[in-house]
Amino acid sequence: MADWQIPPNTRAIIFDAFDTLIEPDPPVIDVYRQTGLRHGCDISSEKMVRRFREAFRSEEQVDAAGGWKVSEERERERWKNIVSRVFGGCPALDAIFAELWSHFAQSASWRVAESAGVVLSGLAIRGFVLGLASNFDRRLHAIADGLTALSPARLRIVSSEVGWRKPSPQFFAAVVTAAKCEARQVLFIGDRRDTDYDGAIAAGLRALLLDPDMKAPSGVRRIGSLKELLTSGPV
Ligand SMILES: [Mg+2]
Hints:
alpha/beta; 10 helices; 44% helix; binds magnesium ion
């Protein structure tokens, strides 16, 4: 039995997309490495992982310094900067970036997380409004359209379209507006403590952390898997 319940006044359940409902398949670094090799750029997976993490973190620091304000251009620039850093010194950088951009725009490059489809349809039957809320760009629409298991999640809130990214209060205000209810009636679920869980709570939403490795400290409301959403009904 889980130690939490879906709050009884919940009307909407909104999910983070990446590593909550969908995952890259094959993994990001495998795709980066194969793309690089096709262009004569041989960088080890270990080095790529390290560079990717550093670049991802430093791009987040840029956004944090800007108050989390973003745009379609900024979201594209973020990935350009990350790819540039991962493939530093490789002459075919522009071609590699173009290939990676279009690879990750396709739904076939993603898979729906285990049990996500069953959980979404089960929650839809119980009458919850469901949606995706992601720090990403407009590619998310084509990706989600192509993954039929996500179809019960009718709402989509994408940072490049909102103009703000998680964890900004403006992003979560856009989530609440899309859900057409009060902030406290929205349950937000994601895999990141800072952007998803803390951001949602600071904006007055309810939140659950998807925490399969049980890393969260006590006091954080967590689930080990999405399936727990079906076994813990409203109190
Ligand atoms: Mg995520």
